[in-house]
Amino acid sequence: MSNSLLEAVFAEVKEPCSLPMLSVDMENKENGSVGVKNSMESGRPPDPADWAVMDVVNYFRTVGFEEQASAFQEQEIDGKSLLLMTRNDVLTGLQLKLGPALKIYEYHVKPLQTKHLKNNSS
């Protein structure tokens, strides 16, 4: 690759990218954020603790993790199990690729756990 081509490529990169998924939007259902607002419309109970295994699987399919959703079914992860999962469980126990596993935990499992705790701590 010539130096001028490399310079042109690097000239396009002015600053590191800021990832839009770093902030959790509890109502945005894009891959990387939590789709909680439409829980009743999807047929899932609003409280993840009440989700059956297929509710968990369908949740992850809905938010863009079609490939990874089957791991939750294979491991029989229902809502109560999902809320008990640690970061390590998601990263190693489900045998997922690291990138999707990190997103699943940080942008879905962890926020669902936090929301559940807030709703049930009163």
Automatic annotation (TrEMBL):
PROSITE patterns: SAM_DOMAIN. Pfam families: SAM_1. Residues 51-99 form the SAM domain. Gene3D superfamilies: Transcription Factor, Ets-1 (1.10.150.50). It comes from Callithrix jacchus. One of its GO terms (molecular function) is histone binding. The lineage of its organism: Eukaryota, Metazoa, Chordata, Craniata, Vertebrata. GO terms for cellular component: nucleus. InterPro entries: PcG_chromatin_remod_factors, SAM, SAM/pointed_sf. This is Sterile alpha motif domain containing 13. The gene is SAMD13. GO terms for biological process: negative regulation of DNA-templated transcription. It comes from the Eukaryota.
